[in-house]
Design goal:
The protein is α+β, with helices and mostly antiparallel strands. 43% of the residues lie in helices and 23% in strands. The strands form three sheets. Strands 2, 3, 4, 8 and 10 form a five-stranded antiparallel β-sheet that branches. The longest helix has 33 residues. The chain is elongated, with a radius of gyration of 35 Å.
Amino acid sequence: MGNKTIFRVVMCIIILSTFILPVSAQQPDKTNEYEVSLKKLMEVTGASASIDEVLSYTLSVAKMNVSEFESPLGERYKESAMGIMREAMPLLVNRLQMDMGKELHPEIDRSTEVVDQTRNRDQEIYDAAYALPKDSIEIADRPYNRATGTKPLLYSIERRAKDTKVTFLQPIYFDWQWLYYSPGFVIIDRKTGDEYHVRGYDGGAPQDRLLTVEGFNSKYIYVSLLFPKLKKSVEVIDILELPHEKDKLPSNDDGIAKSYYDVKVKDYLSFSNKRGKKIYY
């Protein structure tokens, strides 16, 4: 047991002895009983060597002042002291038990420390998040029901002159919500195994940070990712969100990657009818 706990034990015993021993000092057998009990407690806590001198001094002080406690003033002091002791001792004992428990079971402190570290890390990630401007968010003309799940739906694939734009319907199920599409996103040609790695969000939002959305509860919004231009021969693909070294996710992430298998490109082909339109910035 650490020195701090021994010190706390000693202080509690001193307080207890100071209040109790003068009251029973008129009965030597009772005093001896207290002394034996205190020493046993010290042996259990491993502080017997540290308390001998303090205990001896406390007992002697109590015996020296017996006459004072027999006076009317002493009686009033005794009553006051006992009242204080009755109120204070449960608090002292509770604090002592907590402190001793922490030192006897250090894993409690470690678990508390882990919780604090996780909370602090989450807060840092939230503070660094990119808030999507409301006027740049496009809402899908499609109702959202929480019962349909929280996974984004694949909406469209657009073959463009210099890149490929893949758009998802992102469900929003809280008034304030974070969302994240990993820099590990990749399109894989099922026939050749060719890989097309994501370049970023359409509109230029940072992909190594969380995105936050506020005020669109129970709606779908469009989120688009840009990939290299697909070869004309690509017909069936997998769109996978793979782990990436830049991933920084809070502790409440569900750990479920966004994965779409055996996607027939022709089924999702889309052509922009709004030249220069960006989903968000």
